[in-house]
Amino acid sequence: MAVEHTGTGDPARSMALLWRAADREGRTGLSVDKIVATAVEIADGDGITALSMRRVAERLGVGAMSLYTYVPGKGELVDLMIDQVLGETERPEQAGDWRARLEQVARSNLALYRRHPWLLQVGTARPPMGPNLIAKYDYELGALTGTGLSDVEIDTALTSVLAYVSGAAQTAVEAAQAPDRSGMTDDAWWAVQAPLLEKVFDPQRFPVAARVGAAAGEAYGLVDADHAFEFGLQRLLDGIEAFIAKR
Amino acid sequence: MAVEHTGTGDPARSMALLWRAADREGRTGLSVDKIVATAVEIADGDGITALSMRRVAERLGVGAMSLYTYVPGKGELVDLMIDQVLGETERPEQAGDWRARLEQVARSNLALYRRHPWLLQVGTARPPMGPNLIAKYDYELGALTGTGLSDVEIDTALTSVLAYVSGAAQTAVEAAQAPDRSGMTDDAWWAVQAPLLEKVFDPQRFPVAARVGAAAGEAYGLVDADHAFEFGLQRLLDGIEAFIAKR
DNA sequence: GAACATTCCGTACGGCGTACGGTACACCGT
DNA sequence: ACGGTGTACCGTACGCCGTACGGAATGTTC
């Protein structure tokens, strides 16, 4: 199933949880922190589809329903997982010009998605307003201060870059994990597809796809997502640079 | 459960299905086409989480297991849904300069995601090699022909734009459907969050977020995803234009 | 009419999230 | 030391899910 988050429960409870207003330990040593950490482990390792309350509980040596003492439901748990991993992005002192800073922000977001591919599958609308989300936002906005852009423009520009990163990361991350998940290298996969495709594919009907697909397939193995990421990022930054220059 | 696709089944069977090598009707009038169309309806209307074999069958007035006569499993059904909706993108005669053409491609992809938000939740690695996917690829590459870019560069540039669109669409589409899904307008949602956030949020600690967040929130309601989409797209196209000019 | 192929589907299994209600523990006042 | 009470824990159960399996129903072919 697609991954729902932001449970339908009490928003005040969610907020208290996110900011860890009262993180006590139970008698088995259970705690919100431990539950979230375990859930992240499972999602990182086996994908968000493998994340279930029962599995989290099992790994913690605890009954499934015990989790509900600490967390209202799975939706809220996912919210907590999100805020948790957003806290791990490195945030070096922002040196250099805005472009170097923004580039670093982009790369560190890509790294985040690489570490936690499931982030790409959870919705981003109305995100969990936790401390780490806000800290990340605050830090990333900093990359564009001092450029002469207005506050609103800074927000928009950052949003655009993050949108690009998330879209490109989706391709890059999935490409990177496809061999592992399917037990099949890209080459092997293509070796299976190609002869099947040849039977139905008509180069006359799709001349451009035939030519470019062949060229691209030859240039790098099937698809070099990293290269595409870099290219697009530089073009986007070029565009933003021109925009700033015109200000 | 994030949404898995590309079933583990026989690739030859999948390919035959995608290209509709043998789409017969059963005695109840069932067919691959009808199953796929119904599944798309459900996913469009109630989200991909609401898509289940039982629901598809029910809507078709048929037992759940009957679907398996036509489709190997849910994974393959999702593959078929993907190729199906990729076939609906409008593809007007490509007139004007490359920039107008590429802009149109971007916008038509955004429209596609708007119509079928679940597309954003299914993986894109090793996509189902159906006729519509290939036709779309062929058409979209055409936007960048005659620019002096090499075939490989054309592929990379298109990939970048599509990555941006998918990332930005994720934000835009989710923002658009959040009120409907949650039964809460953005304003209402914020009215609940704001006072809770105020209790834990320290403007001293996050000065930039406080200032910019306030400015952005005031400028347009909470977040104007369309505006951000447009801004980023133009910057990216500006960057590509500069790249082409340098060739 | 018989033989066969194919379509349809009832049942069942192991998984899921979680409502509900019971048990057992930790801590308190005495 | 002991009884009382709040809370942490969790067994069971319900209604979902995808789909394996085997049988029933319906053509189709001689």
Structure report:
- 2 copies of one chain form a homodimer.
- The first copy, chain A, is 63% helix and 0% strand.
- Chain A has helices at residues 11-18, 32-46, 53-60, 74-86, 98-115, 131-142, 151-182, 186-200, 207-219, 225-246.
- In chain A, α2 (32-46) packs across α3.
- Chain A is flat, with a radius of gyration of 22 Å.
- Chain A starts with 10 loop residues before the first helix and ends with a helix.
- At the A-B interface, α1, α6, α7, α8 and α9 of A face α1, α6, α7, α8 and α9 of B.
- The structure holds a DNA duplex (30 and 30 nucleotides).
Short structural summary:
The structure is a homodimer of 247-residue chains. Chain A has 247 residues and is an all-alpha fold.
Could you list some keywords that capture this structure?
homodimer, 247 residues, mainly alpha, DNA-binding
